[in-house]
Amino acid sequence: MTCGISGSKRAPLNPDMLRISVSEMQETIALDLEGRLAGPWTSELERCWRDQQAVSAGKKILLRLRAVTFIDDAGKELLKRMFDQGAKLEGAGCLVRAILAQITRPQHVRSEPVSGSKS
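^ thats the sequence. predicted structure below, dont judge the formating
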């Protein structure tokens, strides 16, 4: 798998792999993900993301997880780091959308009971 500009013809995807297709638009660089974001593919996505950040000339990075079938814990952590550093995340399917909702949900501070208050 390579991280580069996607061509018009693509080979069938092995179900245990991750395909990353890169497309450049006027204000955005899109990374389209297909397959499993797990194991060694998490590191590959991070490498690709960092490579694109280096050449993006300030463009926003958009990750489109429209055909992702599985995300392990390391993949979730990477997506969270990417989101925290300004990447936009889009997904399809109930599982992927639920994971992205957890990642993009604002973290609220838990309120602690005030000392001396009666419960």
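The chain has one domain: 16-104.
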